Amino acid sequence: MVSASVLAQRPVFKLVLKNHLFYPAEMIIPANKKIKLIIDNQDDSVEEFDSFSLNREKVLFPQQQAIIYIGPLPPGHYTFFGEYHPNSARGVITVSDAVLTKSTKKANNVN
Question: For position 9, what pLDDT does the model report?
Fold first, then answer.
């Protein structure tokens, strides 16, 4: 069982899917730390978040949010895409040892 204090320390990152594009298309997350990724599908159609390198897939229902837990991961680049719009709905998560600054937190929609 995970304590409430551990959950409170888990960084939360946000992605928005709009017009079959992910925003931000590139984000940086901390290495060796489990994170919570909230994906807000603002489109009127279903999409599927897919990532072979993250070993994750999740159906994103229209006008709803989905949660995916990622990590802990070693530093590197991890690509993702929308299965139904793979040419437009694309992105990359960079896992870094660098500490997140205020500017990177704002760019990554971090709480």
Answer: 75
What is the SS3 string spanning the chain? CCCHHHHHHCCEEEEEEECCEEECCEEEEECCCCEEEEEEECCCCCEEEEECCCCEEEEECCCEEEEEEECCCCCEEEEEEECCCCCCCEEEEEEECCCCCHHHHHHCCCC
Q: Please give the tally of structural domains in the chain.
A: 1
Q: Which CATH number fits the domain that encloses residue 76?
A: 2.60.40.420
Q: What is the mean pLDDT of the segment spanning 54-70?
A: 97
What's the CA gap between 86 and 69, in Å, rounded? 22
Summarised one tens digit per residue, pLDDT across range 69-89 is: 999 999 999 999 999 999 999
Dihedral of the alpha carbons of 103, 105, 109, 111, in degrees to the nearest 10: -140
